Structures are given as C-alpha cells and as structure tokens.
C-alpha cells in the first residue's frame, strides 16, 4: 500500500518518533494538570469559603506554576527532539540556540500566541500542534476551576454583606 500521500516513505521513523513523543508528553502534562487541580480542589474546595483574598491568590499562583511546569515539559521535549537528526528544525530570525529558546517556543505554542518569530519545520510540527491544542484545553480547565472557586468566595461575601445589612437596619 502506498502511504507516500501521508508521510514520505523515507521519513516514517522520524514522524513516528515525534508522534510517540508528542502523545507521551501530552499525556504527562494532562496528568500533571489533573493532579494539580485535584490537589487544589482537595485543599480549598472542601473548606468553608474564606474571606481571605490570599486563598484565591494562592490558587492563581499554583495554577500559574502548573502551566509553567507544563510549558517546560513541552519545551524540553522540543529541545530533545531537535537534537535528533531529520526530525526537523526551528526557523527563526534569531536562531534556536539554547533551552530557553525551546521554552520560549513552547510558551508561544502552549498559549496559542504564535508570534511567528520561531517556526517549527518538519516532523516536529506535530508536537507544536499537540501543544497548542493541549495548552488551550488546560488553560480553559484552569479558568473553569478559578471561576468555580471565585463564585464560592463571592457567594460567601454576598451572603455576609446581606446578613450585615439586615442586622444593621434600625428596628
């Protein structure tokens, strides 16, 4: 069967390597995100909501840390894959010389920002597509979690304000 319409016959190994790496790292970051959110939910959602704003700040910074860890996971995968001959390269005005270039590329892909100053070429493009889709899903998952926690916090604040106003009325 002729599969040259899908992947050039001489490039199957490189594409397979990138596909396995992309699916593996995607599974890893989804598990990291799930466990991180699960830990935050156990720690904060089971409690009675607090009026303390520091709780929400802790949640936000924990979510940012999760996303940074996930970006680094993808960035290190980019860095490692680009060391393998024939999987592709990154085209860019300033080059792609170090790990931080890989992290930067990863951050623009994860956030779907895609500035265009660095562009993957070759089989490694699959990783960038997977990262963009996964990053979009994980950012929205974090936003949903934040919304749920904020609504609990605001509900408590509104109820306390109503109780205070009711008690403060002259009889």
Short description:
The chain is mainly alpha-helical and 171 residues long. The protein has four helices and two strands, in the order ααβαβα.
Distance between the termini: 88 Å
- Cα Rg: 22 Å
Low-confidence stretches: none
Order of helices and strands: HHEHEH
**pLDDT averaged over residues:** 88
What is the chains' assembly state? single chain
- As a percent range, the share of helical residues equals 55-70%
Q: Order of strands side by side in the largest beta sheet?
A: 1-2
Descriptive account of the structure:
With about 170 residues, this protein is mostly helical. The protein is built from four helices and two strands; from the N terminus they run ααβαβα. Strands 1-2 form a two-stranded antiparallel ribbon. It starts with 11 loop residues before the first helix and ends with a helix. The mean pLDDT is about 90.
Architecture blueprint of SSEs:
Elements: H1 12-45, H2 53-81, E1 89-92, H3 99-110, E2 118-121, H4 125-168
Antiparallel strand pairs: 1-2
List keywords for this structure.
mainly alpha, two-stranded antiparallel ribbon, 4 helices, 2 strands
